[in-house]
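cron nightly-structures :: item 1 of 1
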Amino acid sequence: MIIKLEVNDKFYEINIEPGESLLDVLRERLGLTGARRGCGGGGCGTCTVLLDNKPVYSCGVFAAQVEGKKVTTVEGLARNGNLHLLQKAFIEYGAVQCGYCTPGQIMAAKALLDKNAEPTEREVKEAIAGNLCRCTGYVKIIKAIQGAGEMIREGGSNG
């Protein structure tokens, strides 16, 4: 079946197989490998993308379900070769370790900061609760997200 979808502000018509996941379409058909394949069951968050600006596990969404919806991946955050404020903050605060969970963490954080640029520590923890990191105690991730919020409040763009 052929579906039409918008990914990172570009429009595509793709022939998909029944039951094919959004994650598979992004990685295998569009070459967007930022959403990572982790547990495959919606339990780790490494494949988090935004679907109509809401974070979802792309492994648990059928590609056919996204027809007519807007998909944003971590690759879609940078503009004109400039990293998004969240990407910059993750680097600045040392929140990137092995990097495997980073795209999912950033996408969950973007959904939060789009609604609330001044989140409390608790709000950040709730927003990223479905995104597992095996390298850190989340302290640097939380600080990076709050730091990005501060940059946004000071006039930076949250894309």
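cron nightly-structures :: done
The first helix runs from residue 22 to 29.
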